């Protein structure tokens, strides 16, 4: 792989060193503040254990939810630290309720070989999503080397992903990142045909490069999520209260013309007055979204046709959800 990974670092360079690892612990919590799905935590365990087995002192950074640059108790990573401790039996796992404080820095320096420290939600800090230079330098002081194992957030230039890597060397990929990049490179360079891509999420603006890169490679590009509504608007359809990017409508028109029949939009939509009013959800044609409704998921006909396309594929690349899957009934 054309990127350095933790496997490229000699074991003697890891022992006694603080490995600052950016993980993706953005997991759902239930009403009792317990981790409802620990898949992402488990995915990071191989990297954490690789470092611990070589005597590194592991310092973990992650975000959780969208707290908008200030502390919100419901987005604390403390419940995640409890679950992490259960997944690392026999290991010392501690948690500090800050990331840019003297307390956090002292905690990293107090770590012993083979111990783990999880710091508080990086998005509690206003400089995180702004990729603030000062915060990036502060993060860099928390470790002696940097490991990015958060594939799901690696496309965002934040202080804990892009910023810190400019100040803390060596900066390498973790085992999960390596695996994802190996899969992705193989899928893009040598896909078995038919090649179907599924693109969801809320905004076209974050996916323009992805769409343009895939158009020449895929046999079908299935679009879902709120980003479909910007395409609907470009087609002259009513989108009601759906999330639309007005400044991207012209670009959506250009993409539709360029893509032709390869880019496929949902035929029907599951709509509701709001996310909170899920009991009022109903499915209908994309031509019949009323002004008082917003699209919050693809509809059943689309789910069936997309399923058929996916089942016919030999390679599937999936990026982003089809709807507000965290909230019933849009989790269907």
SSE order and pairing:
Layout: E1 18-22, H1 39-53, E2 57-61, H2 78-87, E3 93-96, H3 102-110, E4 116-119, H4 133-140, E5 145-148, H5 159-163, E6 171-173, H6 175-189, E7 195-199, H7 208-215, E8 220-223, H8 227-234, H9 249-259, E9 263-264, E10 268-272, E11 282-285, E12 294-298, H10 300-311, E13 315-319
Parallel strand pairs: 1-2, 1-5, 2-4, 3-4, 5-6, 7-8, 7-13, 8-9
Antiparallel strand pairs: 10-11, 10-12
Structural class: alpha/beta
Strand content: 15-25%
How many H/I helical runs? 10
Shape descriptor: globular
Query: How many strands, what sense, and barrel or not for the largest sheet?
Result: 6 strands, parallel
Strand order of the largest sheet: 3-4-2-1-5-6
Order of helices and strands: EHEHEHEHEHEHEHEHHEEEEHE
Flag low-confidence runs. Answer: none
Description:
The chain has 332 residues and is of the alpha/beta class. 30% of the residues lie in helices and 17% in strands. It has ten helices and 13 strands. The protein has helices at 39-53, 78-87, 102-110, 133-140, 159-163, 175-189, 208-215, 227-234, 249-259, 300-311, and strands spanning 18-22, 57-61, 93-96, 116-119, 145-148, 171-173, 195-199, 220-223, 263-264, 268-272, 282-285, 294-298, 315-319. Strands 3-4-2-1-5-6 form a six-stranded parallel beta sheet, sandwiched between helices. It has a four-stranded parallel beta sheet with strand order 9-8-7-13, sandwiched between helices. Strands 11-10-12 form a three-stranded antiparallel beta sheet. Helix 8 packs across helix 9. The longest helix has 15 residues, at 39-53.
């Amino acid at each position: 792989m054309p990127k350095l990974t933790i496997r490229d670092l000699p074991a003697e360079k890891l022992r006694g060193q603080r490995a600052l690892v950016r993980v993706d612990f953005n997991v759902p919590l239930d009403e009792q503040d317990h981790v409802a799905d620990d898949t992402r935590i488990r995915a990071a365990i191989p990297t954490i254990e690789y470092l611990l087995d070589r005597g590194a002192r592991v310092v973990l950074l992650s975000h959780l939810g969208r707290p908008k640059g200030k502390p919100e108790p419901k987005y604390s990573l403390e419940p995640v630290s409890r679950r992490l401790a259960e997944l690392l039996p026999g290991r010392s796992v501690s948690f500090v309720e800050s990331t840019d404080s003297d307390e956090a820095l002292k905690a990293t320096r107090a770590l012993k070989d083979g111990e783990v420290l999880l710091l508080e939600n990086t998005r509690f800090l206003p400089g995180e999503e702004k990729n603030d230079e000062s915060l990036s330098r502060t993060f860099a002081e928390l470790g002696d080397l940097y490991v990015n194992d958060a594939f799901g957030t690696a496309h965002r230039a934040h202080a804990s992903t892009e910023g810190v890597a400019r100040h803390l060397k060596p900066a390498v990929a973790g085992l999960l990142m390596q695996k994802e990049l190996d899969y992705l490179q193989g899928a893009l360079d040598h896909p078995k045909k038919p090649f179907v891509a599924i693109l969801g999420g809320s905004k076209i603006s974050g996916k323009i490069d992805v769409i343009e890169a895939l158009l020449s490679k895929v046999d079908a590009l299935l679009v879902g999520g709120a980003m479909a509504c910007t395409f609907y608007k470009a087609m002259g359809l009513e989108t009601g209260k759906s999330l639309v990017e007005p400044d991207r409508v012209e670009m959506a028109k250009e993409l539709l013309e360029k893509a032709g029949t390869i880019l496929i939009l949902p035929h029907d939509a599951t709509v509701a007055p709001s996310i909170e009013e899920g009991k009022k959800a109903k499915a209908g044609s994309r031509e019949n979204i009323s002004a008082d409704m917003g699209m919050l998921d693809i509809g059943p006909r689309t789910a069936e046709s997309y399923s058929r396309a996916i089942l016919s594929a030999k390679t599937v690349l999936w990026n982003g959800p089809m709807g507000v899957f965290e909230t019933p009934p849009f989790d269907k």
